[in-house]
Amino acid sequence: MDWYMDAFSANKNATWEFGIDGLPKDSHKYRINQYGEYLFEVMKSGKENGNDIRWQYIIFKYNENDISEAIELARKYQIPLQLNKSSRWSSSDDPYKPSEINCA
Q1: Mean pLDDT, residues 4-18 taken together
Q2: pTM score, whole prediction
Q3: How far is CA 69 from the centre of its chain?
Q4: Among 15, 29, 40, 98, which is least packed by CB within 10 angstroms?
């Protein structure tokens, strides 16, 4: 956390975008070895520090039903949430591809 706080303080005008795909507890399902819960705490600390913090969330099959909860979480901590719909699927049955209603 100290490294992040030093970095946040180094340039108060920087925008910090964190790619946490899904709820923090599930982000490792796509971003292998990512500790989403820790990064969410980093985001909250940056926000409290007065930094411009953004949350990017790619919609996948494993997280498509968590969008409402993510919106509430982002609202609670006043962190802008950017939902991203990808079209980079290896095939129509790609295990990460969300349902058609969420990837249209």
Answers
A1: 95
A2: 0.86
A3: 12
A4: 15
